[in-house]
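hey
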C-alpha cells in the first residue's frame, strides 16, 4: 500500500498552500469629508482572496466602495466620505485579519447636547462663529 501512495504522490504531487498572512496591517486613516479615502494592507500571496467588513457587515463593491487587488496589496476605497463612514473596518484574509479605524474630517460642527440656540448659530468660517441675537 505504501508503494502505491508513493507512486501516486510522484505522479500527482500535492500542492499545499501556506496560510495567507497579513504582512502589513491596516492603519487608522483620516479622509476629508466629500473626498475619497482608503484603507490598505499587504497580504503574503498575490492570489489571496479577502473580504472587507464595516464593523460586522460585509462590504461589496458599489458606488460607495471600491475593492481593489493589486499584486499583494488589498485596498478598500471609500468614495464621497461622510461621517456615517466613520467606523472600524476589517480586511479578512480567512487565515488572518487586520482592523483599523476610519475617520472623516470636515467643517461639520458637533454639539454634544441638545442646545436650543444652535439654530441661531451663523458660521462665518471654520475657525470663528457668531451667535445671532
Amino acid at each position: 500500500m505504501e508503494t502505491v501512495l508513493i507512486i501516486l504522490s510522484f505522479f500527482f504531487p500535492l500542492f499545499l498552500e501556506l496560510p495567507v498572512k497579513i504582512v502589513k496591517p491596516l492603519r487608522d486613516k483620516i479622509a476629508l469629508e466629500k473626498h475619497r479615502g482608503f484603507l490598505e494592507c499587504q497580504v503574503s500571496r498575490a492570489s489571496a482572496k479577502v473580504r472587507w467588513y464595516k464593523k460586522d457587515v460585509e462590504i461589496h463593491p458599489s458606488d460607495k466602495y471600491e475593492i481593489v487587488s493589486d499584486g499583494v496589496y488589498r485596498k478598500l476605497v471609500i468614495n464621497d466620505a461622510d461621517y456615517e463612514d466613520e467606523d472600524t473596518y476589517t480586511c479578512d484574509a480567512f487565515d488572518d485579519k487586520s482592523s483599523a479605524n476610519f475617520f472623516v474630517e470636515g467643517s461639520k460642527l458637533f454639539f454634544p447636547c441638545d442646545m436650543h440656540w444652535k439654530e441661531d448659530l451663523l458660521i462665518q468660517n471654520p475657525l470663528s462663529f457668531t451667535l445671532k441675537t
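The mean pLDDT is 83. Helices lie at 2-11.
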